[in-house]
Write a structure and sequence with these properties.
Length: 684
């Protein structure tokens, strides 16, 4: 990875500034507080964004609402540009925008997604995507004071930090996870043993239930046999009562037949009485008819009289019609003369000659017309009188005719009655014969009823037998139902027992399976806690020993370059620096400031080489950034920095220092100055 260009806007003391990074060694030169460290922080922010615990307020320029950083770099031949912004809100300052452009292909994505792409470009292990950028800090850029702090950390904290940086904290995680796993396995074993502790007791309960099931099945056989017997008894009782019922039905049939016979006897007695009444009535009719006599002469005389009256009525009707015609004619004549009289009275001129009609003439005509009207009135009066007389005569003729017809009908009825005497006498003979026949039927029906009574008396004994049989049948049904219920209860108990046995068998099988699994878990717990942990601890120890030897050798080398030959340095098993002078170990607190800086720088450079060696495929092994690496150095130690820088052998080295002597040790110098609180890059 090679840095090419950095654009800063509203970051700390920068307003708008561009910094170009050449290859080789480059010094960021300037007075204290001129903004050198801000360049390094801007590079880190561009690559990874705000880190956990880092506040946006530490980067955003005061009185600015938004800050922006754009970093251009090259990695494995790819041209990359990263853009990030900070934005001030009412409550906080947060990352607002992030994008990455790779070979002119731009991706505007979330902070996390951009970081993931950068880690992939840098070829950092994927596990670092969710961690702080420690790998970058210990291989590229670590502030000098932070390195001194790592050296002074307690052994366990420092070891965990180095494990994390070396990427071998997995052994520690394996140890912790293994301890957690064995704890959970032991807990699982305890839980399982708590579940299967009563396995033998359940087996004993199963054995008891199986024996009880055998007893129930024997009981079921006995109950079924008894139940079948009760069914047979009930069926036999039903057969007996069916036979008795048939006898009772026969009795009822006879009683019904008796009832029908009695009804027939009653009906036939009614018929006899009816025939007797008919006989009496016909006899009286014969006697009454014999008292009267029929006169043929009187009958013929009546016919003649009726014909005479009909002829007379016909003549009177004709005369009446004639009078009616005359009356109508006279009435019409009367109306015509009345109309004429009215016309003459109102006539002024003659309708023919149109001359005035004299009054005298009109009077003569009116007198004549009045005389004719009087004559007509007289004729009408005479005709109406005659019409009334004729109507009276017609009425008298009709009345006489009806009287004659009534007498004729009486004579005809008498003739018929006298003619029917012989028929009635024959009818009396028939009635007598019919009555005798019915009386014989009555006698036969009475004998049949007596026979039925005898048979019914014979069948009456079956009533009490039926009651006894019905009671026995009800008792048989009760017994059958009771044994059916008992049989069903036994069957249900068997089903329940079988269900319980099945559940117990399943429970035993589960507990047996759990017991086998528990044994396997116990074996696994033993293997993890004893065998596996031993291998992991041994492997970690060997890896840490190898790293410690390499790290310690490099640390001794860099320390010997920076410090006088009277002092020597190495690392103990906890990667803590051990400083010796003539085989005497010196306490860190008694060292000078320059010596402490030398220890931190040697530790920093050694750590860089170890990590780049261990993770040889990461793409930041050609870039090193040193921030104030000579703080507290003597003039002699500053001279030794030339050897340090020449032996680093990296493509791009960026130093931050205010020491002028360092300027002679580097290929390029970027001078920074601050005026009116604003940092600018000076033109070379």
């Amino acid at each position: 990875m090679l840095l090419k260009k950095l654009y800063i806007e509203n970051l700390r003391s920068y307003e708008k500034q561009e910094v170009v990074f050449p290859k080789g060694s480059t010094l960021l030169s300037g007075d204290i507080g001129s903004g050198k460290t801000t360049v390094l922080l801007a590079i880190e922010f561009a690559l990874f964004g705000l880190q956990p615990g880092q506040k946006g307020a530490s980067l955003l320029r005061s009185n600015s609402e938004e800050a922006k950083v754009v970093l251009d770099f090259e990695v494995e031949g790819k041209q990359v540009r990263i853009e990030r912004t900070l934005k001030r809100s009412k409550k906080s300052i947060s990352q607002d925008y992030s994008s990455i452009t790779i070979d002119n292909e731009k991706f505007e994505e979330s902070v996390t997604e951009v970081k993931s792409k950068i880690l992939k470009l840098l070829n950092y292990p994927q596990e670092f995507s969710k961690k702080t950028n420690l790998l970058y800090k210990f291989t590229v850029y670590t502030p000098q004071e932070e390195m001194k702090q790592i050296i002074l950390e307690p052994d366990e904290i420092r070891l965990n930090t180095l494990r994390h940086v070396f990427g071998i904290d997995k052994y520690k995680r394996i140890e912790d996870n293994s301890a957690l796993l064995t704890s959970r396995l032991r807990e699982k074993i305890r839980i399982n043993e708590g579940i299967i502790y009563n396995l033998d007791e359940i087996k004993e309960i199963l054995n008891q239930k199986q024996n009880h099931l055998i007893e129930l099945r024997e009981k079921q056989k006995d109950m079924l046999a008894i139940y079948k017997r009760t069914i047979e008894i009930r069926s036999e009782k039903e057969r007996i009562i069916s036979e008795i019922q048939e006898k009772i039905n026969q009795k009822k049939s006879l009683e019904n037949e008796k009832s029908k016979s009695l009804v027939l006897i009653s009906e036939k007695n009614q018929q006899v009485m009816s025939l007797q009444n008919s006989q009496k009535s016909i006899t009286l009719q014969i006697e009454e008819a014999k008292k009267s006599s029929f006169s043929e002469e009187e009958y013929n005389s009546l016919n003649e009289r009726i014909k005479f009256q009909e002829s007379k009525e016909e003549e009177l009707q004709k005369e009446y019609i004639q009078i009616i015609g005359k009356v109508n004619s006279e009435e019409s004549r009367k109306r015509e003369m009345q109309v004429l009289k009215i016309k003459i009275s109102g006539l002024q001129k003659c309708p023919t000659c149109l001359q005035e009609v004299p009054e005298e003439y009109k009077k003569n005509i009116l007198y004549k017309t009045t005389d004719e009207l009087d004559g007509t009135e007289k004729i009408l009066s005479e005709l109406n009188l005659k019409k009334t007389q004729i109507l009276d005569q017609i009425s008298m003729v009709k009345k006489a005719k009806e009287e004659f017809k009534t007498k004729k009908s009486e004579l005809e009825l008498l003739k018929i009655k006298l003619g029917a005497i012989l028929e009635k006498e024959k009818r009396i003979v028939e009635i007598i014969q019919q009555k005798q026949s019915i009386e014989k039927d009555i006698e036969l029906l009475k004998k049949h009823v007596e026979s039925i009574d005898a048979s019914v008396l014979e069948y009456s004994k079956y009533d009490s037998i039926f009651d006894i049989a019905g009671k026995e049948l009800r008792e048989a049904k009760i017994d059958e139902n009771n044994f059916a219920i008992k049989t069903a209860e036994v069957n249900k108990e068997i089903q329940f027992s079988e269900s319980q046995i099945k559940e117990k068998i399943q429970e035993i099988e589960k507990k047996e399976e759990l017991k086998r699994k528990t044994e396997k878990i116990r074996e696994l717990e033993y293997w993890v806690s004893e065998k596996f942990m031993e291998i992991v601890l041994f492997t970690e120890k060997q890896v840490m020993l190898t790293l410690k030897e390499e790290f310690s050798g490099l640390f001794s080398k860099w320390f010997s370059i920076l410090v006088s030959e009277s002092l020597s340095a190495k690392l103990d098993d906890n990667f803590s620096p051990v400083i010796e002078q003539q085989d005497y170990e010196l306490d860190y607190s008694f060292l000078s400031g320059g010596e402490r800086t030398a220890i931190a720088l040697a530790y920093r450079l050694s750590l860089n080489q170890v990590i780049n060696s261990l993770l040889s495929n990461i793409n930041t092994n050609d870039l090193v950034i040193l921030d104030e690496p000579t703080d507290g150095f003597s003039s002699q130690q500053l001279d030794k920095m030339r050897d340090v820088l020449s032996q680093l052998n990296v493509e791009q080295l960026i130093l931050v220092s205010h020491e002028q002597k360092i300027e002679g040790f580097v290929d390029n110098i970027i001078r920074l100055s601050k005026e009116m609180g604003i940092t600018k890059v000076e033109d070379n």
